[in-house]
Every structure is written in C-alpha cells, then in structure tokens.
Amino acid sequence: MKNNKYFKSVIYIALLILLFFIAKDNVSAAYSIFSQTDDEYTKISADYKNMNENIKNKKLYEEKLRDISDDAYNFNIMKNIRQEQILTILNEFLSISSVEASSIKFSEISDEKADDEVESALVSVSFTASYNNMLKFIDEIQVCRTGASIKSVRFVMNDNDEFYGTIDIVFYALKMDEAYE
Questions:
Q1: Which residues 6+ apart lie within 8 Å of 173 measured at CB?
Q2: For position 181, what pLDDT does the model report?
Q3: 110-118 contacts: CB < 8 A, separation 24 or more?
Q4: What was the pLDDT predicted at 97?
Q5: Domain boundaries along the sequence of the chain
C-alpha cells in the first residue's frame, strides 16, 4: 500500500511538473500572441494617424489652392498660359486701339520661379498703326489686369506717318491644376 501511495505521489508530481511545463508553454504562447497583436495594433494605429494627417493636409492644401485660384480669378490673372486666351486678349487690345497686327509669334512657355509657381510666355506682335493708336495699344497692355508686361518695343515710321513695329509682351500665369480653374 505504501508502495502504491509512493507510486501515486510520484505520478502526481510528474503530472504536476508536466502540467507546469505545458502551462508555461501555453502562457508563453499566449503572451507571444498578445505581443504580436499589440505590435499589429500599434502599427495599424500609426498608419491610421498618418492617413488622418494626410487627409487633413490634403484638405488644407485644397483650401489654399481654392483661395489662390479665387484671388487669381478676382485679379483676372491667368491660371495657365494658353495661346487661344492670349490671342483673345491681344485681339481685344488691337481692336480697341485700332492697330493692325501683321504677325503674332509665341515663344516657349517657361517657369519664372524656382518653385515653378509662375510661368510665362513671350509673345511678339508685329503691327502697323498711327502714333496715337500705337500709344493706345501700349496703354491697353500696361493697364490690363491679366499679368502682362512689355519687354521691348521697336518701331519705324514711314513717310505717311504710319508706324511699323514689333512689341514683345510677356504674359504671366499662375501654374494651377486643371481641376481648380
């Protein structure tokens, strides 16, 4: 009987040791699972915060872009340089001042600032006009609100008091996305 009790005690102790090691492994595995879950939660939380910040920044950027676009519209500054828009403006100036254009030449569009926010295009207009009409044409360019400046004026006068000349005009525009025009 003592032998049987001793044998039962040894079995109980062996079972307890076995249970201890199994429980230890299960606790370790459970801790590992919780640790992985916590790491995943931290990563997902950080990604969510970054996305949320990006959404806020995008909204702020779009609001500022709309404000700039509205200001440009109020000042009548071109949003992008388009030849057809420049031709319309020049046609208006030529009609108002009764100047005949014999040719209009466009140069390449170029960036004016290092941060590429402003672009410009040089337009050369060859014309025929009287002296007063030529001055009216120059005045129209100077007072226009479309972001244009006169780079140079060259002209000669013939015997009939007609002026033949070329005027170089630089048109400026804000570089903006098509969606905000």
A1: 77, 78, 79, 80, 81, 118, 119, 120, 147
A2: 47
A3: 111/175, 112/172, 116/175, 117/174, 117/175, 118/172, 118/173, 118/174, 118/175
A4: 92
A5: 1-75, 78-180
CA atoms within 13 A on the CB side of 149: 4
pLDDT of residue 77: 63
Structure tokens, 51: 């996305």
Longest alpha-carbon distance in the chain: 145
Please state which of the four CATH numbers 1.10.630.10, 3.30.70.60, 3.30.70.100, 3.40.50.2300 is assigned to the domain occupying 78-180.
3.30.70.60
* Tokens 């525009």, residue located: 173
Distance CA 112, CA 128 (A): 31
Per-residue model confidence as pLDDT tens digits over 121-179? 899 999 999 999 999 999 988 887 777 888 999 999 888 888 999 999 988 887 765 54
pLDDT-derived band at 23, boundaries 50, 70, 90: low
Block residue for tokens 């008091």 = 161
Q: Which amino acid is at 96?
A: I
Q: Are 127 and 101 in contact (CB under 8 A)?
A: yes
